[in-house]
From TrEMBL:
Binds directly to 16S ribosomal RNA. It comes from Leisingera aquaemixtae. Residues 1-23 are annotated as: Disordered. Pfam families: Ribosomal_S20p. Belongs to the bacterial ribosomal protein bS20 family. One of its GO terms (cellular component) is ribosome. This is Small ribosomal subunit protein bS20.
Amino acid sequence: MANSPQAKKRARQNEKRFAVNKARRSRIRTFLRKVEEAIASGDKEAATAALRAAQPELMRGVTKGVYHKNTVSRKISRLSARVKALG
């Protein structure tokens, strides 16, 4: 348990940060799921639109410190390759 005032404040800040980051991760996963569903349905136009919507969200996750830059780059690259492979 935090005893010093500084440790108590850090604990409060960590809780707030955790909630914000959790919401952001959830939002990003929702965008990714929409892309995955569009790819699974085989609709190239919907998949392209979903990917275009997901890319800024993913990159925002990088700037906010939720994901690492290379992780997001890899995800975008793999998803775009899968969308491109659709008929």
